[in-house]
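seq:
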Amino acid sequence: MATGVHWLTVVVLVEALGLRPLLANIGGWLVALGVSFAGHHLLTFRGHGVPLGRSAPRFALVSASGFAVNEALYAAALSWGRFRYQALLAGVLLLVAVMTWVLSRYWVFRGRSVPR
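struct:
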């Protein structure tokens, strides 16, 4: 869900406000950050038993690292690719979502029992 929110926010910022895709990507990440944490904390890894004070800073670090990778890959794709910015962003977001899920599963929300 957060990937969709991120993508849609970028498209709205580019199309409605005329922002450049890389700048709009920052806004997309900021909006999706809360959606992503809430979704993982409350749904994906529910029952993890990790206190909010431990999982939130870890998730912020994972998310910020993922965004750095996202922005670098997106910048490269925009400069090399012939595809529209929306398609390039979708590909980058899907790659980073996998990275975020893995790190969240095995580090951020690793608690007493980790749901399978």
